[in-house]
């Protein structure tokens, strides 16, 4: 039972983070305004690595866990979750995804579909600032009404055909919501919708501190970010599979 809950926790966390926008009136103008709203191109380019700390709530299990996520440009990611007395880790080392199995006491390569999701997330600001470099196309779609207000819809399409649609507040130009397909708790694809709010300034950049994820219309998790640290000179070995 404990392992099943841990697997579900990882699935909802990965789905939510994979939906976080990395994108690009026309599409390039919206993309540029979003970059400006998040601190500006120069400030985002100056971010070489990020450490995010927070807590995750999974209502269906009555479960709360702590999360620490590390990202280092251009393509490395690691997440550590402290839950039920266990620390579960997974990451992307720039080439492959991996995860720890605390019950077996081993580290294993991640299934391909989950590895691709981590690879997308691992790009971080690089995909936002230069999507074409990574084979990502960005298109502006018809506006959509959310919470009584029209929002801009920016669709991001990756080289493998995966799409993420970001709904942008037309006043602040910050992403308010994203929609995509993601790997769910049962290991199959689900409709994933992520709500981003409580934007705060962190040095020269702006980041959401509250993230809520729904899978197939049912709330999967809430992530509350308590601390964001940039440029702490993270070592590449942190992201390596051991």
Notes on the structure:
- The structure is a single chain.
- The protein has 242 residues and is α+β, with helices and mostly antiparallel strands.
- Helices cover 20% and strands 48% of the residues.
- It contains 5 helices and 13 strands.
- The chain has a 13-stranded antiparallel β-sheet with strand order 6-5-4-3-2-1-13-12-11-10-9-8-7.
- Helix 1 (2-18) packs across helix 4.
- It is globular, with a radius of gyration of 17 Å.
- Mean pLDDT is 88; it is low at 1-10 and 18-24.
What descriptive keywords fit this protein?
single chain; 242 residues; alpha+beta; 13-stranded antiparallel sheet; 20% helix; globular; disordered N terminus
Biggest sheet architecture: 13 strands, antiparallel
Shape: globular
Identify the strand order in the major beta sheet.
Answer: 6-5-4-3-2-1-13-12-11-10-9-8-7
Quickly give the structural class. Answer: alpha+beta
Strand content is: over 45%
Give the low-pLDDT segments: 1-10, 18-24
Q: Mean pLDDT score, rounded?
A: 88
**Beta-strand segment tally:** 13
- Report Rg: 17 Å
Helix content: 10-25%
Helix count? 5
Helix-strand string: HHHEEEEEEHHEEEEEEE
Distance between the termini: 26 Å
Q: What is the topological layout?
A:
Blueprint lengths: L1 H17 L8 H11 L3 H5 L3 E10 L4 E10 L3 E8 L2 E7 L4 E5 L4 E4 L2 H11 L2 H5 L7 E10 L2 E9 L5 E6 L6 E9 L5 E14 L2 E11 L2 E13 L12
